[in-house]
Design a protein that fits this description.
Layout lengths: L2 H67 L4 H10 L14 H4 L2 H13 L13 E5 L5 E6 L22 E2 L5 H5 L3 E3 H12 L4 H8 L8 E3 H9 L1
Antiparallel strand pairs: 1-2, 3-5, 4-5
Helix pairs in contact: 1-6, 6-7, 6-8
C-alpha cells in the first residue's frame, strides 16, 4: 500500500470517528432533553396531585365539621367509613337516607307546620319562633314552638353590641347558621386555608378571614371557599 493510500485511509477513519462522536453527542443531548421534559411533567403531575390532595383534605375537614354540627360524632364517621370501605374496581352506591338528606330539626318543623294547618293561626308559631332544644352532647332533639302573641313584636332589631362583622361572628351571633351547618370555627377555617395553600401562616389566614387573633369566632363556609378560589 502506497503512502498516499495510507494517508487517505487514515483521513477516512478520522472523519468517520468525528461523525460518530458528533452523532453520539447529538443522541445524548436528545436523551437529556427528553429526560428534562419527563422530569418537568413529573413535577407538574406531583404538584397537581398534591393540590388535589390538599383540596380533598380541606373538603373532608369541612364535611366533618358539618357532621359534628349536625350531631354526628367522629366515632360514628369512622365506623361508617370502615363499614363502607372502598376496594379497587368497586362502585360506590349511596342511597339517599332521610336521616342524612333531612335534619331532625327540618322534619320536626315540617310536622309542626302541617299539624297547625287544621288549627287557628293564632296558636301556631310564626317562622323564626321555633327554638331548638339540645342535649349536652349537641345532638338535636326537638323544637319548642312559642305561640304568637300580640304582646311580642313581630320584628326585633338586633342589639348594637351584637352587630356582625363581615368576616366572622361569635357563636351567639351565628346561632341560626351554626344549627344549619353554614359556619365553621375560625381556627378550623385557618387550618384548612393553610393546608390548601401550603405556605400561609395560620395567623395570616385568620386576618384574611376577618377574625381577631385574640378571640374565638365563627366564619361562613362561603367565605372559606371564596378565599380558597383566589
Amino acid at each position: 500500500m502506497t503512502e498516499s493510500n495510507r494517508t487517505a485511509k487514515a483521513a477516512r477513519v478520522r472523519d468517520n470517528q468525528r461523525r460518530s462522536r458528533a452523532r453520539r453527542k447529538e443522541y445524548i443531548q436528545d436523551l437529556e432533553q427528553r429526560l428534562r421534559a419527563f422530569e418537568k411533567l413529573g413535577v407538574e403531575a406531583t404538584l397537581e396531585v398534591q393540590a388535589a390532595g390538599r383540596k380533598v383534605a380541606a373538603e373532608n375537614a369541612l364535611l366533618r365539621s358539618l357532621l359534628r354540627i349536625r350531631g354526628v360524632t367522629d366515632f360514628e364517621v369512622e365506623h361508617y367509613l370502615r363499614a363502607h370501605r372502598i376496594t379497587p374496581g368497586s362502585e360506590i352506591s349511596v342511597a339517599a337516607s332521610p336521616s342524612l338528606s333531612q335534619s331532625p330539626s327540618d322534619t320536626i318543623a315540617r310536622q309542626s307546620t302541617e299539624a297547625c294547618r287544621s288549627r287557628s293561626a293564632d296558636i301556631c308559631p310564626r317562622p323564626g319562633e321555633l327554638h331548638l332544644v339540645k342535649e349536652g352532647n349537641g345532638r338535636q332533639l326537638a323544637l319548642q314552638a312559642q305561640p304568637a302573641s300580640q304582646d311580642h313584636p313581630r320584628h326585633m332589631s338586633e342589639p348594637a353590641g351584637l352587630a356582625r362583622r363581615e368576616g366572622c361572628c361569635t357563636e351567639q351571633q351565628c346561632l341560626g347558621e351554626l344549627d344549619t351547618g353554614q359556619v365553621t370555627s375560625c381556627e378550623t377555617a385557618a387550618r384548612i386555608i393553610t393546608m390548601m395553600r401550603g405556605h400561609l401562616d395560620p395567623q395570616d389566614a385568620r386576618v384574611e378571614l376577618g377574625c381577631s387573633t385574640e378571640t374565638s369566632c365563627m366564619v361562613k363556609n362561603m367565605t372559606i371557599f371564596d378565599l380558597l378560589d383566589r
